[in-house]
């Protein structure tokens, strides 16, 4: 909340927290409404797809070593990495080093999934009549609402109230937006990132460092946020702003990421073993963008049989669109922490070896580039804005939901 907002609330005799909630309600409401439309469209597509081929097997479930199909939209929302998260939420990390679970999958593979999201869901999953899937869905819903609120605050801080609302709306229809509502860590990490960046913009250094530290427990790409928060705190310390607080932020920001990697490496017998499993089991390692650039060229030139697959074309377009929005973000001279965070997220997403179908999901937390369309939406008439967002909500049920999940490739 800015100084102006606080002063106005105090003049009205309204508590700060109540004013903050009241101001954010339109952004949260629009976000939820747009997501509900997308989810309904995805549900229709799921029912139609199942009617066409009820026995279709779509993806290999690494948590059980079985192939799975989609009988409903819920199956899609609990697919791929979500299978691991729901399993960890229900069973925990599991047995000792070298042991395997009932499906013959080594327990050590669970250590590759950062724990904050399943940790938050696990207490709910222990309640009577609450399944691990339901517990994860509750955490995703709460996290998505918190993320929409954080996006609104950033949009309002940088521009105004209307831009804040439109930023939350744009994130609701972004590519791969369905992972916001599935058993994935995207919503949780985005919420932590949004509030951490807002804390940096408003010079709440301890809060920024603590949130960045927590984000390091949610996913490895939190390194982008950790770096930005740490750099901003360092600059504040050099300029002697904030007293001891920027130093605290610098210490807190990397604590979660370093702590978990250290813990997992210790459990596995060494950091080499940790990265070896990432590379040889999950196909994830730093390759300086070699795999990404190869797919981009294949799609552009049509050099392979898979080049024309819709999921590949879509994600190459997502990458190009992101680059354009990022350039415009820098050109519009927003606070540097927002543009550098988006750039760092892009570098981590494009520089790692991963299937191209994961590009939209990996870039989803880089919401700051959506300030560009948010400003454009805020300047349009209400009628045109409603028509555009409504159309995108319907379309996103396909391009941001069903297509990524049903592609049969990594998500």
Automatic annotation (TrEMBL):
This is Uncharacterized protein. It comes from Actinoplanes missouriensis (strain ATCC 14538 / DSM 43046 / CBS 188.64 / JCM 3121 / NBRC 102363 / NCIMB 12654 / NRRL B-3342 / UNCC 431). Keywords: Endoplasmic reticulum, Glycosyltransferase, GPI-anchor biosynthesis, Membrane, Transferase, Transmembrane, Transmembrane helix. It is a multi-pass membrane protein. Its main location: endoplasmic reticulum. GO terms for cellular component: membrane. PANTHER family: GPI MANNOSYLTRANSFERASE 2. The keyword Calcium does not apply. One of its GO terms (molecular function) is GPI mannosyltransferase activity.
């Amino acid at each position: 909340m800015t100084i102006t907002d606080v002063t106005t609330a105090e003049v009205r005799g309204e508590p700060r927290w109540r004013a903050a909630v009241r101001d954010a309600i339109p952004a949260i409401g629009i976000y939820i409404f747009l997501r509900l439309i997308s989810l309904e469209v995805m549900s229709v597509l799921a029912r139609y797809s199942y009617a066409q081929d009820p026995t279709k097997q779509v993806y290999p479930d690494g948590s059980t070593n079985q192939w799975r199909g989609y009988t409903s939209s819920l199956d899609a929302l609990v697919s791929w990495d979500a299978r691991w998260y729901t399993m960890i939420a229900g069973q925990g990390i599991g047995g000792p080093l070298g042991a395997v679970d009932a499906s013959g999958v080594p327990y050590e593979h669970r250590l590759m999934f950062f724990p904050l999201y399943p940790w938050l869901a696990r207490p709910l999953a222990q309640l009577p009549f609450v399944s691990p899937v339901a517990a994860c869905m509750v955490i995703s819903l709460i996290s998505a609402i918190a993320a929409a609120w954080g996006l609104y605050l950033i949009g309002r801080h940088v521009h105004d109230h209307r831009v804040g609302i439109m930023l939350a709306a744009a994130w609701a229809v972004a590519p791969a937006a369905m992972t916001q509502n599935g058993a994935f860590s995207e919503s949780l990490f985005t919420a932590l990132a949004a509030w951490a960046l807002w804390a940096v913009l408003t010079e709440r250094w301890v809060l920024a460092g603590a949130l960045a530290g927590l984000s390091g427990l949610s996913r490895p790409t939190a390194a982008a946020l950790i770096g930005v928060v740490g750099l901003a705190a360092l600059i504040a310390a050099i300029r002697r702003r904030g007293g001891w607080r920027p130093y605290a932020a610098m210490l807190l920001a990397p604590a979660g990421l370093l702590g978990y990697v250290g813990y997992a490496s210790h459990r596995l017998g060494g950091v080499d073993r940790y990265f070896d499993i990432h590379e040889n089991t999950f196909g994830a390692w730093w390759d300086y963008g070699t795999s990404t650039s190869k797919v981009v060229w294949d799609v552009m030139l049509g050099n392979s049989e898979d080049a024309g697959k819709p999921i590949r074309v879509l994600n190459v377009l997502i990458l190009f669109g992101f680059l354009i929005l990022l350039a415009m973000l820098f050109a519009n001279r927003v606070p540097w922490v927002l543009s550098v965070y988006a750039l760092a997220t892009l570098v981590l997403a494009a520089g790692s070896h991963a299937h191209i179908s994961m590009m939209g999901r990996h870039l989803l937390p880089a919401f700051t580039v959506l300030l560009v369309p948010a400003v454009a939406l805020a300047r349009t008439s209400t009628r045109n804005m409603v028509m555009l967002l409504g159309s995108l909500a319907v379309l996103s049920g396909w391009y941001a939901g069903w297509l990524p999940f049903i592609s049969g490739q990594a998500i």
